[in-house]
What we know:
49% of the residues lie in helices and 11% in strands. The strands form four sheets. The protein has a six-stranded parallel sheet. A six-stranded parallel sheet has the order 13-12-11-14-15-16, with helices on both faces. It has a two-stranded antiparallel ribbon with strand order 1-2. By secondary structure, the protein is an alpha/beta fold.
Amino acid sequence: xxxxEKNTITEDGQLMLKKAEKDQIETVWDRYQAQLPQxxxxxxxxxxxxxxxxxxxxxxxxxxxxxxxxxADADIIVARNLGRMIAAGAAAHSDHxxxxxxVLENVAEGNAPGYAITDxxxxxxxxxxxxxxxxxxxxLRIAGELAHAxxxxxxxxxxxxxxxxxxxxxxxxxxxxAGIMPRGIDRETSEMMHRTHMGVDxxxxxxxLHALRNALSDGWGGSLIATEVSDILFGxxxxxxxxxxxxxxxxxxxxxxxxxxxxxxxxxxxxxxxEPDLLRMxxxxxxxxxxLAGLCCTGSELLMRHGIPVAGNHLMTELVIxxxxxxxxxxxxxxxMPSLGTVASCYHTRMISTSDKARFPGMEHREFHPDNxxxxxxxxIREAIENYEQRGQVYIPVEPVQSVGGFSVEAIISALGGTxxxxxxxxxAGKIRGVAGVVGCNNPKIRHDHxxxxxxxxxxENDILVVDTGCAAIATAKAGLKMADAIxxxxxxxxxxxxxxxxxxxxxxxxxxxxxxxxxxASALADALGCDxxxxxxxGSAPEWYSEKAVSIGTYFVASGVYTxxxxxxxxxxxxxxxxxLTEGLNDVVGAAFAVEPDPEKAALLIRRHIESKRRALGLxx
Length: 622
Ligand code: SF4
Ligand code: FE2
């Protein structure tokens, strides 16, 4: 096998890597190689840069220093570093949620032309959750009050976040008793930064407990608000066919690619791409049309709600540009490699950054705000069409793969006929053994998409329903596991159930903030069974994770009672105390823990074993 096959399992990835090499494009894999060997202290979490008496490091072999200048030992340093990773991840998701709340507020005030309340039903439901009186109120008025109430969840005026009420009662009591009930979204992140300042919280256990609370403020706070407000503004997803991989780019159309996370910009770009005068202009320039494609999570947002094609996941983002077929790429924030501008400089692709808080070298900054979004989107699409004539040679080496996406919890329940009961019956009868969430990123430390695809194949073969999000969801779609006839890859029970419902055995539940949809689904199953989430035959996994956001997600899964298997090892091995607490001790605190297993074949065994033991404990196979 060659280097391309070692880096990625995907055909489009291998062919594009070859093309990139020919074009002398440096990729994430090249830069990873150049970094090897990576710092062993940092890999183990044993280096500290928290204060200026340092930087310090603790010697893992017990020969050199065992304490930083301040006196912090390995346990403290590792716990502090992990805590700060979670704070950064929770901040990213929650700030994304806040941007949506601001759009909602602007819509209510009439300051956001082009945006609207699309799902009034959901607006009312969420408003009721917030205790807002909706009787005889116009949707815009409810929207304004809801935005205001949600802003309250970000601050310090609450004792408990509003939407934790959607978690099973037993879970909420457990959080209260353990002292990890999240109070304010920003508060928990801010407190984590405080606690990890030199000379504050030096109890590695208390730090890690607060880390759970911080992550819960993401999962049951910022991310959940992001998902709910996105549904309110842009519609709650329903099952929709779509296509994926680099083959979704079109040789004879103007290709526009959106990359990042927040649907606020990409939804406006989508609207502009469909406007008749711009389509006419594209045709005048000799193109057959305007083709919009997504990358990463903003791609999944559009795929979920509109069936817009996705060109690739995280590790494909540089290679998409190397097709030479992209007239314009627009980015918002998160997971956008700062190398993209350099790659684009070798082609005609115009790179546009759109968020006031995210700049990138080699990109042109055109800032989107709720009041100028519609006009700016039109202006940029016009410029992208102009750029079509600058195209050089184009290389789009594969055909796209068909898939089905759009499985919000509402869509799943409606596919089941209005209640979760049929799913529960199938689980009780053992036709479906359990449910696994496969989520997270790509990471050049793991063969691209190998973790996601192999793990998912093994799980569905063994009658475990897989729900996925983020880059994992794009990986399994590209591998054909979400095609209409993908049930042929499932075990007999899962095949029967999915076949009867007309759904694939792997359900695309959305972007990374949409991991909360998995929490809500798990809560619905737990409520229907009268148990806690930790009693269910469910598991989570992040086989190729790389980001701080993924650490926060994994942590709120575990704190919500979901056993979670990580692929790459987080930087914690410098403290066996921390490792033991996260992989064993947490069982006594939250009824779930982490495992780490980079080999997806073995990870599948861990998940199957866990699901079977939960089935036994529930007496399902008695
Ligand atoms: Fe060193 Fe302590 Fe400062 Fe960290 S906080 S850099 S261990 S002195
Ligand atoms: Fe993401």
